[in-house]
């Protein structure tokens, strides 16, 4: 068979495959899908698909399917360096060239779906080939744009819309000045071009503006050069067309594109845009107010129908997209110092409309009523779902963050107005949806609870929340209002429990208990669960749990009933609240353990693959463990189950259950006081066996952490433990440690072995004898082959802890053991430590490591310890970052440099690291200070201002607190018990560096090696004359 015949045969096979995929017969369709996989590895498959797309003799569905398959083919076979999707073979250069020549013709096809499909395929190719391998593409697109038919114009616009996302700084000078005038013509001519095409023109302008402004961060003249000629006419046109009412020349989609374009201009060119502010803001506000009324009528209450529009790909243009774009515009104004005052001046009106957008829609009412899990998920503070309701809350929080006093007064005005209007609507019977705005108003108050509380304490709150909640309880119960509103009243009362007088608080708690009962609406019951959590939290903090105690039996019974009925999201909420209830009164908790514990164990086993429910079950186990009256019964019920799981072969239990069981054992051990019960000690050999014999990284890691808990809580019991052969508990833990330190063991399994070693040394060091040397050699060996930062940090921390506890001993050991390259192990460890310190994670680990380095530096210098002073390290020469005049080079200038390196003492390197850690502390401290001065329109801070801020922070009460400037408290119990955890790192480093810099050896031995940035940090803490 000749080559042309083979090609024709393959093309016919491709056509037949397309017909099969479109078949109504499932078997034929599956066969066709399988045949595609065979055809796509042939040389001409992409060409055949392109030819089919272009040939109008084939039916439209065949051609459309060909565009889809061609796009998939390009994604998988076009470029072998596309690691994410590439499957061999790569398309041959000859085939690529032919496809690039043929495919643009489809952009002028009479069918919009063919044009759109071809545009997507062309854009996918352009991502790799344009402009180097496809220099004619842009010329072709511009020809279609300026000289072609309406069809080819639309096709080229589709491609430009996609490829302008990825224009780089080399292409910009050739592309931007050519495209922008043309898309401006299209956008501004509403008589010749359709709304959809004009909307695309705005999107192309937006894409290019963002690209140019991003590049302009490193090339200051680029924005003015490329965007300058277009900004004025485009801004005028954007404002003009945003004012147009919906009709043939304007709709929701066009307005959405306009608002997005204005948002980009606000963010990136505020200075140029400021002259237009007086024209832009009224227009956007009018759009906001009009959108609010349309949204309430068409989406919230569904009393009117909106005209659905579709884009060029046939997708429905959602009205919610316009609302979201307006919210993003408000965010941009708030984040831009130059425009914040405009938001502040109209904040009451803005919040009024934000609350309208926070109302529950009819669709949400139906969805949440049918799916309580969805209700919990969507209304959670940590929800990943998107809705206009949640987006409106985000805007309110942004306003609260930026304008505290104004946001508070504006919110109070808006809520008062809404409640008055709702009362009128309800009284007149003119609107059955009056309750929605009341619910949204209560929600808005709860969202900014902390702000209202602070204003209340200062007697500056212009709203009587007690009166609102009093009337809500009386009126809405009497009116049998929506369960969504009744539930929101309970939730709001729990949020503001500290505002309520005792009588009203007690009434609300009673109402909440009543709302939990089985005969109530499920939405009301779930919201009452949230309210229970809030009331418990407040009454515990205020040490006034007596009010709640009589209600606890009914509350607990109701929560247990809900836990049986529901799963997933609702169950998670119930378990979280149950753990809070159990912490209220230990005497009551002891009476209900017999009900709570069996159910929690059953749920733990049933949902063992759900990490959220497992963690919440552990919270309940932990709470019961901390109650002496519950500890024995809990262990009696739970430990046999855990032992049974851990003793079972992995293939006999659900996947992952072994690891979860070890996690629960750790929880029980950590929550217990020594001596551990006999029942709990039965789990010890099970944990050892799991850690030693499993090849599952999760089981091995959890087993190690579980054993660390045993050593930490009751090291004497572990030392006294004996198996039938006389081996001690410490013997087994040492075996686990040595196994985890084995270089052949996967690093993911041994990521936290350093924690186990440190705890073992700290809590049971006196029992270890010669094993200490063996373990430390294992740590060295593991560190040598470690590639993971987490694992390396864990191992380095072993030596950091030892320097705190036994500096001389660890220096003696490391100096006497050879390292991997012939130098001492001390040389190796310090090199590893100093090269990774700056990327360590965790506030506690960073603190312990930094203080250890400071002690090591002090020891090395004051004792002139040659074991340390003779070690050097290679670093980048800082002088390579400056030019001949001492000025810092730009990023582009640095890219052309061949960096120089130099050798310095390891002690100098340690000093540099300590200064670096101090700079991080100062940066964190400044984040706690006041926000940027609004008068500083560029959002930058002078060095002098930094110095003043740093000085204020260093002398403030912040340094007297328990490390407020650390990232977060460490969750690890061993870390919490370490005296180092309460040291304020900023204060420690400040005092250390001040003292160190005053010594005689500093000016000659260290100062010459510091760069200008490091000297500036020292200057910030009062070390001058550098």
Automatic annotation (TrEMBL):
Extract the signal peptide range: none
GO MF: small GTPase binding
Which keywords accompany this UniProt record? Answer: Nucleus, Protein transport, Transport
What SMART domains does this protein map onto?
Answer: IBN_N
Q: Which residues form the Importin N-terminal domain?
A: 32-109
Which Pfam families does this entry report, sorted A to Z?
A: HEAT_IPO9_c, IBN_N, TPR_IPO11
Name the UniProt record assigns to this protein: Importin N-terminal domain-containing protein
Question: Source species, please?
Answer: Daphnia sinensis
């Amino acid at each position: 068979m000749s080559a042309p015949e083979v090609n024709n045969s393959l093309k016919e096979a491709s056509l037949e495959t397309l017909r099969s995929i479109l078949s109504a017969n499932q078997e034929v369709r599956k066969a066709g899908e399988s045949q595609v996989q065979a055809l796509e590895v042939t040389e001409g498959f992409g060409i055949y698909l392109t030819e089919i797309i272009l040939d109008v003799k084939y039916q439209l569905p065949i051609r459309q399917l060909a565009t889809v398959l061609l796009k998939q083919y390009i994604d998988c076979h076009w470029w072998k360096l596309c690691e994410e999707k590439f499957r061999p073979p790569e398309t041959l250069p000859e085939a690529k060239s032919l496809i690039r020549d043929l495919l643009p013709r489809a952009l002028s096809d009479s069918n919009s779906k063919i044009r759109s499909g071809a545009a997507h395929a062309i854009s996918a190719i352009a991502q790799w080939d344009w402009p180097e391998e496809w220099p004619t593409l842009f010329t072709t697109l511009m020809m279609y744009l300026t000289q072609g038919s309406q069809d080819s114009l639309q096709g080229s616009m589709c491609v430009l819309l996609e490829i302008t996302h990825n224009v780089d700084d080399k292409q910009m000078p050739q592309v931007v000045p050519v495209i922008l005038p043309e898309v401006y013509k299209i956008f501004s001519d509403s008589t010749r071009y359709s709304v959809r095409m004009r909307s695309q023109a705005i999107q192309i302008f937006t894409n290019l503006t963002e690209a140019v402004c991003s590049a302009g961060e490193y090339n200051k003249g680029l924005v003015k050069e490329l965007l300058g000629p277009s900004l004025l006419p485009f801004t005028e046109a954007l404002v003009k067309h945003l004012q147009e009412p919906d009709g043939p020349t304007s709709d929701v989609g066009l307005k959405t594109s306009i608002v997005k374009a204005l948002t980009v201009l606000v963010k990136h060119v505020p200075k140029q845009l400021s002259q237009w502010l007086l024209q832009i803001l009224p227009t956007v506000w009018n759009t906001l107010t009009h959108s609010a009324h349309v949204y309430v009528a068409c989406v919230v209450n569904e009393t009117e129908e909106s005209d659905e529009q579709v884009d060029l790909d046939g997708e429905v243009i959602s009205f919610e997209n316009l609302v979201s774009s307006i919210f993003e515009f408000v965010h941009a104004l708030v984040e831009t110092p130059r425009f914040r005052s405009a938001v502040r001046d109209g904040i009451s009106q803005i919040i009024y409309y934000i609350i309208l957008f926070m109302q529950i829609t009819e669709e949400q009412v139906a969805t949440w009523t049918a799916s309580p899990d969805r209700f919990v998920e969507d209304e959670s503070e940590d929800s990943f779902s998107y809705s206009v309701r949640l987006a409106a809350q985000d805007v309110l929080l942004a306003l609260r963050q930026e304008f505290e006093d104004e946001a508070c007064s504006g919110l109070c005005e808006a809520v008062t107005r809404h409640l008055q209007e709702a009362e009128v609507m309800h009284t007149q019977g003119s609107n059955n949806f009056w309750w929605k705005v009341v619910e949204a108003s209560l929600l808005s108050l709860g969202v900014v609870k902390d702000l209202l509380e602070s204003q209340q304490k200062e007697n500056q709150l212009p709203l009587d929340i007690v009166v609102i909640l009093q009337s809500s309880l009386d009126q809405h119960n009497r009116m049998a209002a929506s369960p969504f509103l009744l539930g929101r009243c309970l939730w709001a009362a729990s949020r503001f429990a500290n505002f309520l007088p005792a009588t009203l608080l007690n009434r609300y708690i009673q109402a909440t208990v009543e709302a939990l009962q089985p005969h109530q609406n499920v939405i009301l019951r779930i919201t009452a669960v949230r309210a229970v959590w809030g009331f418990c939290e407040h009454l515990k903090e205020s040490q006034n749990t007596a009010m709640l105690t009589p209600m606890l039996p009914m509350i607990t019974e109701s929560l247990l009933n809900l836990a049986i009925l529901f799963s997933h999201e609702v169950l998670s909420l119930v378990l979280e609240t149950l753990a809070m209830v159990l912490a209220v009164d230990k005497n009551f908790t002891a009476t209900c353990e017999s009900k709570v514990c069996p159910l929690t164990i059953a749920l733990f086993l049933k949902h063992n693959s759900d990490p959220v429910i497992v963690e919440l079950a552990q919270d309940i186990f932990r709470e019961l463990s901390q109650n002496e009256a519950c500890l024995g019964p809990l262990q009696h019920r739970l430990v046999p189950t855990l032992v049974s799981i851990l003793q079972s072969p992995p293939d006999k239990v659900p996947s992952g259950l072994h690891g979860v069981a070890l996690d629960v054992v750790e929880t029980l051990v950590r929550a217990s006081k020594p001596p551990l019960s006999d029942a709990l000690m039965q789990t010890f050999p099970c944990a050892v066996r799991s850690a030693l014999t499993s090849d599952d990284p999760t089981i091995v890691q959890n087993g190690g952490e579980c054993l660390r808990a045993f050593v930490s809580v009751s090291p004497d019991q572990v030392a006294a433990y004996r198996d039938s052969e006389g081996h001690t508990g410490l013997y087994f833990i040492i075996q686990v440690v040595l196994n985890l330190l084995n270089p052949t063991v996967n690093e993911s399994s041994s990521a936290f072995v350093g924690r186990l070693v440190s705890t073992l040394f700290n809590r049971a060091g006196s029992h270890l004898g010669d094993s200490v040397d063996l373990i430390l050699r294992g740590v060295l060996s593991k560190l040598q082959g470690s590639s993971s930062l987490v694992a390396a940090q864990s191992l380095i921390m072993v030596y950091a802890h030892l320097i705190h506890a036994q500096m001389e001993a660890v220096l003696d050991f490391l100096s006497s053991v050879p390292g991997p390259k012939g130098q001492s192990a001390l040389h190796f460890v310090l090199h590893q430590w100093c090269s990774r310190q700056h990327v360590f994670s965790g506030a506690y680990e960073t603190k312990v490591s930094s203080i250890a380095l400071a002690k090591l530096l002090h020891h090395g210098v004051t004792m002139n310890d040659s074991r340390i002073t003779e070690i050097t390290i290679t670093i980048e020469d800082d002088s390579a970052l400056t030019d001949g005049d001492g000025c810092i080079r730009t990023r582009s200038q640095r890219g052309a440099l061949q960096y120089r390196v130099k050798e310095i003492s390891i002690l100098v390197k340690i000093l540099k690291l300590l200064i670096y850690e101090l700079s991080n502390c100062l940066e964190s401290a400044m984040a706690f200070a006041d926000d940027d001065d609004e008068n500083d329109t560029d959002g930058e801070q002078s060095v002098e201002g930094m110095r003043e801020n740093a000085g204020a922070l260093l002398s403030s009460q912040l340094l007297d607190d328990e490390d407020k400037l650390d990232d977060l408290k460490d969750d690890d119990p061993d870390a919490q018990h370490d005296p180092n955890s309460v040291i304020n790192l900023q204060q420690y480093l400040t005092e250390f560096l001040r003292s160190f810099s005053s010594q005689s050896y500093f000016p000659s031995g260290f100062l010459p090696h510091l760069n200008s940035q490091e000297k500036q940090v020292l200057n910030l803490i009062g070390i001058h004359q550098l």
